[in-house]
Design brief:
alpha/beta; Rossmann fold; ten-stranded mixed sheet; two-stranded antiparallel sheet; 22% strand; globular
């Protein structure tokens, strides 16, 4: 089966970094990369974003800018070292990003989505962008890799998988984590805040499942206590110089979907130079 990777872009430096990171990460794999740009018009009222009328002059201008921007990316890609394993397609859609991704994913069934941690309109230093958090909330059919601006383009040598073992991870998704570890010859450090002797039956079962899926790569289970996960993860990654973080993203609750409660990625804290891979729970 072809490895189809979706690369959303808003033509920012961050999204270009994400494209480069994906190319480097999968340099040894045959992949078809789909570079997606969407555009829509801001309005006022109950719905803050409305799709454009194809006949409007404004829409034609947005379409032209979108196609020109994608053309510029193809020119930039042509200047990179050629890789026979990789093909590139560009897609321009007059739609909301989440809707466009859902539509394309139904047709193409992406193996992974790789995107920037924040877009061109998000200037806040230590926060993930609105579009990034929106995709994490709405798209659950494949893993999503979030790449920050200051990312190191070398292959990761250590990946931290953070989990409390409460959620049953999709076997198909943890295989992607294992594949990345194998491609990079990286070890996986599983980090939790629950002491082994205090795990419930379901937690032990989920831990056994994770252990069985990690059997083909170097891995170790670590537990910390009396500290919040964001603090534990930040210290763990900084001390060990880990190159990637992964977490099990459970389905958003009713309140998370409404925006009253932070979604899982926000609870982990912001990482300015470490990519974060969201795997989905059942």
């Amino acid at each position: 089966m072809e490895n189809r990777i979706l690369l959303p872009t808003d033509f920012s430096k961050n999204s270009w970094n994400a494209i480069q990171y994906a190319i480097k990460l999968f340099e040894e794999k045959k992949c078809i990369f789909y570079i997606l740009h969407t555009y829509s018009k801001e309005t006022h009222g109950l719905d803050s974003l409305t799709l454009l009328d194809p006949d409007q002059a404004f829409n034609k201008m947005c379409k032209l800018r979108s196609e020109q921007g994608l053309g510029d990316i193809l020119v930039q890609l042509s200047k990179l070292q050629h890789n026979d394993n990789h093909q590139f397609h560009v897609v321009s859609k007059p739609a909301l990003l989440c809707n466009a991704v859902k539509e394309l994913n139904k047709e193409l069934r992406f193996k992974m989505i790789v995107m920037g941690a924040k877009g061109i309109t998000n200037q806040k230093e230590e926060t993930y962008g609105k579009q990034t958090l929106g995709l994490l909330k709405e798209i659950r059919q494949c893993p999503i890799l979030v790449v920050p601006t200051k990312v190191d383009f070398n292959h990761p040598k250590e990946i931290v998988l953070t989990t409390n073992f409460n959620s049953k991870i999709k076997v198909s998704e943890i295989r992607y984590l294992v594949e990345i570890a194998k491609l990079s010859n990286a070890s996986i450090q599983v980090l939790s805040l629950t002491q082994p002797h205090k795990l419930s039956f379901s937690q032990k079962r989920n831990k056994v499942l994770i252990r069985s899926q990690l059997k083909d790569v170097a891995h170790k289970f670590n537990s910390l206590r009396n500290v919040k996960m964001a603090t534990a993860l930040s210290c763990f990654v900084e001390i060990r110089k880990s190159n990637m973080i992964s977490y099990i993203d459970r389905k958003p609750s009713f309140w998370e979907r409404l925006g009253f409660v932070k979604i899982s990625l926000s609870k982990l804290g912001y990482f300015a130079n470490v990519p974060v891979l969201a795997l989905h729970a059942k």
